[in-house]
């Protein structure tokens, strides 16, 4: 079996992909942050330092940390990969043929490090040292973006997610994030860590418009024993879930998908912001959202297609899938005000490193205390800046290798 395998949410984590926030954050301003899907403007240096603590906490737990900027830079050193990425990200449809051609030539002349920085971090017209006959640059202001920054790349969980012996390259819901997936497509195809390795690309790897079939990794929990739990949030659609399920079954990589319909609002943007798996039989949950009456379906393979049946409740469905008599649920800590604040600051979005050991923001004192009392060890990381992006340790990590249950 290839080392590229994620068999659970709680088995020993071996390798993970992170993205240290750099240039993209310097381009966030109060006037543009909302269209770039950020609620706030972060202090860039401090966010980077907090992220370093996160990465080092993982390394101290014997987890190998891969950084997106490095992987992209190393991928761009492969001429075919560089050509493909420039053609894809700087397409004639996006920029018009004249400007696209000029811009591709301009970017192609950069060294890999600088090019990776620009593709991830964006480029304003004022920074462009380029003469072009195209109408486009003449119709933009100096501070407009030629290439929009990708601050949400910080959340490596969403763009691609490894499920058992393969990966889904997720067609993202929001235009502000759709370019991210192409970076991962190039990395998984050409980077030496992945090229020629034996793994399945379930979904999202074609040059297609996936229409309504959206999926984001924050909604996908590989709960183990052949089961996958997926939240249908504001960013993941039933069409996306059914397509992914069909591909998982066709490749013999999963036996069932449990799909939960979530309320469509920002505080529970993804399932993992309101629920994460912390130990084989233990989940953290925000009870205001994760109520017993959430509509739930079980999807299973049937004659080369899928069978979909509604089930009474998601907790029972998880117990059955994992062969457990009952689940231990730890709810967000504090009184209802504190719980709401801590959920907003990603108290429920923890990253499990091995059974019963999780990484979470130190600021969520009430919830962390509850985890501790329930026998879960919390490795605390600072999140005063990182937390403003509305994502915790699970959002900011894409496991690439993890043991099963």
From TrEMBL:
The active site is at residue 395. Its main location: cytoplasm. Pathway: Amino-acid degradation; L-arginine degradation via ADI pathway; carbamoyl phosphate from L-arginine: step 1/2. NCBIfam families: arcA, PRK01388.1. It is found in: Cytoplasm. One of its GO terms (cellular component) is cytoplasm. InterPro entries: Arg_deiminase. Pfam families: ADI. Keywords: Arginine metabolism, Cytoplasm, Hydrolase. This is Arginine deiminase. Belongs to the arginine deiminase family. One of its GO terms (biological process) is L-arginine deiminase pathway. Its EC number is 3.5.3.6. The keyword Hydrolase applies. It comes from Vibrio astriarenae. It catalyses: L-arginine + H2O = L-citrulline + NH4(+). GO terms for molecular function: arginine deiminase activity. The keyword Lipoprotein does not apply.
């Amino acid at each position: 079996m290839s080392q590229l395998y994620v068999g659970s949410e709680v088995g020993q984590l071996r390798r993970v992909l992170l993205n240290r926030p750099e240039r993209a954050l310097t381009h966030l301003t109060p006037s543009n942050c909302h269209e770039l899907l950020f609620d706030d403007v972060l202090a860039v240096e401090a966010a980077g330092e907090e992220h370093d603590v996160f990465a080092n906490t993982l390394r101290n737990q014997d987890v190998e940390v891969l950084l997106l900027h490095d992987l992209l830079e190393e991928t761009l050193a492969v001429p075919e990969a560089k050509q493909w990425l420039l053609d894809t990200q700087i397409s004639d449809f996006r920029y018009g043929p004249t400007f696209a051609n000029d811009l591709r030539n301009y970017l192609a002349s950069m060294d890999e490090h600088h090019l990776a920085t620009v593709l991830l971090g964006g480029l304003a017209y004022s920074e462009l040292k380029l003469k072009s006959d195209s109408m486009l640059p003449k119709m933009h202001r100096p501070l407009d973006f030629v290439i929009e920054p990708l601050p949400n790349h910080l959340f490596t969980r969403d763009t691609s997610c490894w499920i058992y012996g393969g990966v889904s390259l997720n067609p993202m819901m929001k235009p502000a994030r759709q370019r991210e997936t192409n970076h991962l497509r190039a990395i998984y195809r050409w980077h030496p860590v992945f090229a020629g390795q034996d793994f399945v690309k379930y979904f999202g790897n074609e040059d297609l418009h996936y229409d309504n079939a959206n999926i984001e990794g924050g909604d996908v929990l590989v709960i183990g024993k052949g089961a996958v739990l997926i939240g249908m949030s504001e960013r993941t659609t039933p069409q996306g879930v059914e397509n992914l399920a069909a591909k998982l079954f066709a490749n013999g990589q999963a036996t069932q998908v449990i799909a939960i319909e979530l309320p469509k609002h920002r505080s529970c943007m993804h399932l993992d912001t309101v629920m994460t798996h912390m130990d084989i039989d233990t989940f953290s949950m925000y009870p205001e959202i994760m109520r017993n009456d959430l509509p739930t379906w079980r999807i299973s393979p049937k004659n080369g297609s899928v069978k979909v049946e509604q089930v009474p409740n998601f907790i029972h469905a998880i117990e059955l899938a994992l062969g457990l008599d009952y689940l231990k649920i730890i709810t967000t800590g504090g009184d209802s005000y504190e719980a709401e604040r801590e959920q907003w600051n990603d108290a429920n979005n923890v990253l499990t490193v091995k059974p019963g050991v999780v990484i979470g923001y130190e600021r969520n004192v009430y919830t962390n205390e509850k985890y501790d009392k329930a026998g879960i060890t919390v490795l605390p990381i600072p999140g005063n800046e990182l937390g403003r992006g509305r994502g915790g340790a699970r959002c900011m990590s894409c496991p690439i290798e993890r043991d099963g249950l």
